[in-house]
Amino acid sequence: MYKQSSDCPGNLKWSTTGITIIGNGYGSGPDQLQFPQGLFIEPKTQILYVADVSNNRVQRYQNGEIKTAAGQANASSGSTSDKLNGPRDVFADENENVFVVDAGNQRIQFWEKNAKHGKTVAGNGSAGSALNEFNYPIRVLLDSKKNIIVADF
To answer: Among 32, 117, 124, 125, which residue's beta carbon has the most beta carbons within 10 A?
Structure first.
């Protein structure tokens, strides 16, 4: 398939068939996703992380294996440190720690590798416009100096 576009120079070509690398359909099983949104590939480890919004978790994919990196594997939601509520984005470092946009809880959670609980590193759980509040955060990243950058509505 070819597409002519004034936004991109020349012709674009892409395959009309895709390859699924994570997820085996809609659902809450360990190999299923419900409304995946944020994707991040950590450059050094090449691990793929997916914010699985409706399953309230972040899944990681490496060498054909899918594991839960943050939140509950059973898709339960909540506001305690071991749960997420509608995670929208994820950023991972080379040590396999993840920063998660926990949008439903108006916070950014930091989960160390293999941790059972996260730590709130930004936001206070309440929606608002104060410096310590978010009004529906949607993206997160770290710059080269390890500063957390968050996009918020």
So the answer is: 32
The mean pLDDT value of the chain amounts to 91
Coil vs helix vs strand at 150: strand
Phi-psi region of 150 (alpha: psi -120 to 50; beta: other; left: phi over 0): beta
| Four-point Cα dihedral 36, 18, 66, 147, nearest 10 | -50
Contacts of 51 (CB under 8 A, 6+ apart): 36, 37, 38, 39, 58, 87, 88, 89, 90, 100, 101
- Structure confidence at residue 1 (pLDDT): 42
Domains of the chain: 22-152 (2.120.10.30)
pTM of this structure: 0.86
